[in-house]
Amino acid sequence: MSRAAVSKVIRNAYGVSPQMRERVEAAIAKLGYRPSVAARALRGSSYRLGLEIPHVSARFMGQIVDGAKRALWGTPYQLVLAPADGPEYGTIESLADGLVDGLIAVSPLVDAAWLEDLARRVPVVMLGRHDSPTGYDTVVGDDVAGARAAMQHLLDLGHCRIAHVTEGEAVTAPRSGTPHQIRLDMYRACMVEAGHADFVQVARRGPASDGAGRATADLLRQPNPPTAIFAAHDDIALDVLAAVAESGRRGEVSVVGYDNTDLAAHPLIDLTTVDQEGVEMGAQAATMLIERLQGRTERREYVATTSLRIRSSTTPPRGTGSGPARAGSLKSAER
Amino acid sequence: MSRAAVSKVIRNAYGVSPQMRERVEAAIAKLGYRPSVAARALRGSSYRLGLEIPHVSARFMGQIVDGAKRALWGTPYQLVLAPADGPEYGTIESLADGLVDGLIAVSPLVDAAWLEDLARRVPVVMLGRHDSPTGYDTVVGDDVAGARAAMQHLLDLGHCRIAHVTEGEAVTAPRSGTPHQIRLDMYRACMVEAGHADFVQVARRGPASDGAGRATADLLRQPNPPTAIFAAHDDIALDVLAAVAESGRRGEVSVVGYDNTDLAAHPLIDLTTVDQEGVEMGAQAATMLIERLQGRTERREYVATTSLRIRSSTTPPRGTGSGPARAGSLKSAER
DNA sequence: ATGAAAGCGCTAACAA
DNA sequence: TTGTTAGCGCTTTCAT
């Protein structure tokens, strides 16, 4: 039989008789034949979708991957992950260079123009970008609402001295539009709005090794330390909780995270956090990508809704006498 | 200029003059040219190495990935991850079908003969297999020593009623040689050796959703519940700790995990666990794979050494008076 | 040192 | 319905 016949059988293409199909399938089974992805990709599509996953906030990525897998279930597409931890250009290109039919990336820092170029070569969905591109789709959380909810919660509890612990300067660069920049801005705005502008304190996580532990420890060692900390994401929040525990003040400093990572619900952690539908974000991204592959060209954007999950890591401040703090102490006695 | 020239420049091959190289490089930069991985793979190698990562014990996989990345640093190889959660045959094949030059997989359950076949097509390194293959390399922890160390620690503390919480039956099938089967066997052997054969109790984690929480809760609800639990890996241990905390007996049931996941060191978790050099395992696997690609054909095996990390999740049993429990109490006073 | 050309395994358009 | 054939973009051998 001819290769064309085999090709048609494999692709379920039109124009092949039942008995031919049977013969081909028998041969495939007997020879253990497997089509070469490389050759396929060269001629058409590889049926692989790439997902670039930055090391930062690794736990949140688990949700994204789960969602993408769910969305791809039953489709002919396979998910391929590429871990990145530096500037993501290289990793993204290594995916785009013919390995995959389309890609999802989480790279708030790469240049928008560069992405538009990339998107002309291969369909792209970007996660966590608040820009308004023309050539690619975006899936993003409502960071304004999420950060505001977190801050409002702490303020409602009666906290005044609230610090923010976030990623390095690069990730929050002033007009970059990254989720972390927006969370930081909202933190500042809420503090100002609540009349605590004088206590605005931002700490940043250091080089990967020590995480946000040192930065938090420094915050706590001050004469007038924060009574609450808003962490830019759950992984940082974990470091913050660790630093608080190690400083011997477990339970005395409220901590809010972001992402509602699986660990946040663990009773030994029990972290108040902002849920932004990570799984749904992953699923939407994969779905959008497939739509692009099927021919859609107009831009789409999915904005995930956020909701605050209140757990025991946030309590009213230990009252030292001021109005709201006093109210807080009462509440804390009820626990 | 000819494509041959370009090809040579890209591959740093022999036979190209400096001025030609310069011209080519200028053209590459100007056109933003990127070689197609697919075409390359078709003709020779893709310079991609695949790593199949099962969803189970996800946190341990982080170490493996980190190690593999470290080993690949500075080589021309890129790491590509393929998430799997069911029977891994499909995922492995989807990698092997021309996408990658070689692959690392963590699939204790796939058939050895099938793997030998696979290894004839593409270089393979398997993680966590205690078999003695001819065509592929293995990287494995010393599960006998690791499990024994964990059990010995609990017995030394004075525990008699020790339960084991592990994965589903499939993963511990009697003569399968999986790490979890060996840990289970060692658990049983140590219990018998210590004269506690009558208390051997094995619980298993249910379908992914509830984890090992239910199984643990059932254990604890018994009239004569265990005073210590040996969990087959840290992710299960986390579920166990959660169930213990939720049963209101935080700190009363000792828990040992396995893998020394990053979370085990968190002060709010502080889990005693068996370290098996996960990062080193990943690095060794990647290194072995590269050696294979460079022509090695004889089999290699790397056995990671284990070491017990004692933390506060294990304490002597709350003494109800028996000999060993009393001894344990003394030790605990030293803490 | 350079270029021409064959062919990797597949798909798609066309011929039989 | 089937088989033939022309490339996809690269590497590699062989002439020049």
Your description of this structure?
The structure is a homodimer of 335-residue chains. The radius of gyration of chain A is 25 Å and the shape is elongated. In chain A, the strands form 2 sheets. In chain A, strands 2-1-3-4-5-11 form a 6-stranded parallel beta sheet, with helices on both faces. The model of chain A is unreliable at 320-335 (pLDDT under 50). The first copy, chain A, starts with a helix and ends with a helix. The first copy, chain A, is of the alpha/beta class. The first copy, chain A, has helices spanning 3-11, 18-31, 37-43, 58-72, 89-96, 112-121, 143-157, 179-193, 213-220, 234-246, 278-293, 323-334; strands at 48-54, 78-84, 102-105, 124-127, 137-141, 162-166, 201-204, 228-231, 254-258, 272-275, 301-304, 307-309. Chain A is built from 12 helices and 12 strands. Chains A and B meet through helix 3, helix 4, strand 2, helix 5 and helix 10 of A and helix 3, helix 4, strand 2, helix 5 and helix 10 of B. The first copy, chain A, binds a DNA duplex (16 and 16 nucleotides) through helix 1 and helix 3.
Largest interface by residue count?
A-B, 41 and 41 residues
H/E element sequence of chain A? HHHEHEHEHEEHEHEHEHEEHEEH
Sequence of strands across the biggest β-sheet of chain A: 2-1-3-4-5-11
Mean pLDDT across residues of chain A: 92
What is the straight-line distance between the termini of chain A?
A: 77 Å
Fraction of residues in H or I helices of chain A: 40-55%
Characterize the overall form of chain A. elongated
Q: Structural class given helices, strands, pairing of chain A? A: alpha/beta
- The tally of helices of chain A reads 12
